[in-house]
Amino acid sequence: MKTILIAHNYTKGSFAYMSYCLAQSLANDGRRVVFISHKPFFSKPFRENIDKGELLVYSWPTENRPVKISDALWYAKIYLKYKPSIVISHFVNVNITTIVSKILSLGRVKTLPYYHTLSSQINEDVSVSSFKKNLKKNRKKLLYKWFADLIICPSDFAREDLKKYFQCKNSVKILNPMRDRFSGKIVMDSNFIVISYLGRLEPSKGIIELINAFLAYKKKFQMSKIILNIAGSGSQYDQVLKLCNVNTDINFQGALSYNEIDQYLNKSHYTIIPSKFDNLPTVGLESMMNHTPLLISNNTGLTKELKDEIDCFKFNPTLEGMISLFENVENNFDNHINMGIEARKTYLKKFGTDSYCTVMKKIIETLSVIK
After folding, report:
1. Helix 130-146 and helix 156-166, axial crossing angle in degrees, nearest 10
2. Contact 21/353 with Cβ under 8 angstroms?
3. In whole angstroms, what is the distance from residue 33 CA to residue 26 CA?
4. Is residue 190's pLDDT more than 90?
5. Region 164-190: what's the mean pLDDT?
6. What's the distance, CA 23 to chain centroid?
7. pLDDT tens, position by position, 138-155
8. Backbone angles phi and psi of 340, in degrees to 5
9. How many helices (H) and strands (E) does the chain have?
10. What's the CA gap between 2 and 33, in Å, rounded?
């Protein structure tokens, strides 16, 4: 029985459902799947009840980020016990699982690390010395060149970013899926136009620029019906809070729990993504899943998967671009219901979990026959 190892978060209740779903699907096909979960943390390994194959779930030795030598030694024991032929890893799990697997297998194992976060985003959001930045970049470049067989990118933007920053061409685009949680659209008050932002409050997300553009628009069009909702947390929290207090048409709600996301997006006429740099923002998929059309920056990987004025409004994330966007939204508000319908269609066509599992299985089968 061939073994596949997946290192991500074993949960139904987040974006990581993509890996939970893939693990279940592969096991039900008759494979043995070893899943290493960072969050949630399980104090003891357990076996899922699978009819055909086998699904074993572990957690790292501690709830901390797996970056220590002790974590690598623990993983080495797991690898040698099950000897997987394919290793798929996400986020903080990538370094140890990819490097240790290649070394212990003498290069035979096929490793598939994910490239979730753009380097351009990290450069915008994280302030570190140029020495430390170059050290991390070169370390990652070596990992991708010597230890990764295929790097999975969720967008064309990610592939371009990977090639630009790490000179890596061994990548493939596979769109991230989103679990369908839609239960019905809430009827909105048409006396207002509710535009909602949900996400991290970091420089790359363009949240400060969004608020400034909204304030400028409201000053120019004082009879505007647009209301701006903002939810999230991050390094710009205090700055956002201060700016939001300037206008009563901005509602700042702080961080939301995962269970509150669908209702928040469902009660909006539009969801706005003003990012300066972004890969495939999860909130965009959640919004489309909830029948809520997007107002989306041209600087995101998701933008290329959408059709302007059909399932979204696209814009440049500048002051002038966003002021023009708000005016466009207000002048075309009668079409927002149809845009929501089209947004949901796009979600179902491109971002379902079944299609994701099908694509991943084809990749696994292809790599399995390569010696």
Report:
1. 110
2. yes
3. 7
4. no
5. 90
6. 18
7. 899 999 999 999 999 999
8. -65, -40
9. 13, 14
10. 9
Residue 297 token pair? 């920056």
3-state secondary structure of 1: coil
Please, which pLDDT band fits residue 369 given cuts at 50, 70 and 90? confident
For 230, list phi and psi in degrees, rounded to 5: -135, 130
Which element (helix H / strand E) includes 33? strand 32-37
Here the tokens at position 110 are: 């096929």
What pLDDT is recorded for position 298? 98
Q: Which residue type sits at 347? A: Y
| N-term to C-term CA, the chain | 18
Radius of gyration of the chain from its Cα atoms, rounded to whole angstroms: 22
The tokens of 156 are what? 């064309």
Asked whether residue 58 carries a pLDDT value surpassing 80, the answer given is: yes
User: Using CA atoms, how far apart are residues 324 and 315, in angstroms rounded to an integer?
Assistant: 8
Q: What's CA 76's distance to the chain center, in Å?
A: 28
15 touches 176 (CB < 8 A): yes
Task: Give the integer Cα–Cα distance in Å for 222 and 240.
Answer: 22
Q: What is the pLDDT of residue 371?
A: 56
Mean pLDDT over each residue of the chain, to the nearest integer: 95
